[in-house]
Amino acid sequence: MKRIEISTVNVNGLRAAAKKDPGFVGWLAGTDADVVCVQESRALAEQLPGAVLAPEGWYVQLCPAAVKGRAGVAVYSRREPDAVRVGFGVSEFADSGRYVEVDLGSVTVASLYLPSGEVGTPRQEEKERFMEAFLPYLVETSAEVRARGRELVVCGDWNIAHNEADLKNWRGNRKNSGFLPEERAWLGRVLEQAGLVDVVRGLYPDQVGPYSWWSYRGRAFDNDAGWRIDYQMATAGLARGAVSARVERAAEHGLRWSDHAPVTVRYEWEG
């Protein structure tokens, strides 16, 4: 029986998250996860303290964006990866700090930070270009992984709420980036064409949420007026082995070290 526990979290800036108490460093020291996928690190290696860049017991793959202070992804793993690949073969996004994948035994784990977008702006156009380029890569990679008898899980901030159950105020967001009909349809194609499974939704098909992001504005966190945009999308063999999933929501607003919360899944499967 194989076992792996994977967490994914948008840290909203590694430097800021590390300075908070409790913060990312304390959370990392206390987690039971074997792999942690990080998004929106917004930092170069030389800007990070040792407790973040080289924490004891972890191998760290830090992939910053070429533009300082933007995006950035990382993977923390307790075992050294067999291979590391940055980007997905499209030149526009090669150094954008939005995708990295690592091979860990029979599982490929990826950290994704999909652009957030804003309707009617170049940011939304960038998001649409990314989506158009990324889907074929997912389809091809998923097929290749499965053909080799391996598994794939793409973790991260997908910046799209797929269904009405995935955000509190869905009626008021139907014309906003993150819940546009075409974005939701695209996410459906990811699942169908790439043969991936939304693991948390698979475990909790009838639950509203669980949300993983809450705006810092107003009382969104206190009222649990959030969005579920942080996913673990896995090939079917791995998804069937998901035995538990949880959103590690802070006990209160003052204990938050990001506007997102870690989404953690434990997998057990034959292989």
From TrEMBL:
It comes from the Bacteria. Signal peptide: none annotated. SUPFAM superfamilies: DNase I-like. Probably binds two magnesium or manganese ions per subunit. InterPro entries: AP_endonuc_1 (IPR004808), Endo/exonu/phosph_ase_sf (IPR036691), Endo/exonuclease/phosphatase (IPR005135), ExoIII-like (IPR037493). One of its GO terms (molecular function) is metal ion binding. Pfam families: Exo_endo_phos. The record marks 230 as: Important for catalytic activity. Mg(2+) binds at residues 10, 40, 157, 159, 259-260. The keyword Ribonucleoprotein does not apply. GO terms for biological process: DNA repair. Its cofactor is Mg(2+); Mn(2+). Gene3D superfamilies: Endonuclease/exonuclease/phosphatase (3.60.10.10). CDD domains: Nape_like_AP-endo. The active site is at residues 113, 157, 260. Residues 8-260 form the Endonuclease/exonuclease/phosphatase domain. The record marks 260 as: Interaction with DNA substrate. NCBIfam families: exoDNase_III (TIGR00195), xth (TIGR00633). Belongs to the DNA repair enzymes AP/ExoA family. This is Exodeoxyribonuclease. It comes from Nocardiopsis kunsanensis. The lineage of its organism: Bacteria, Bacillati, Actinomycetota, Actinomycetes, Streptosporangiales.
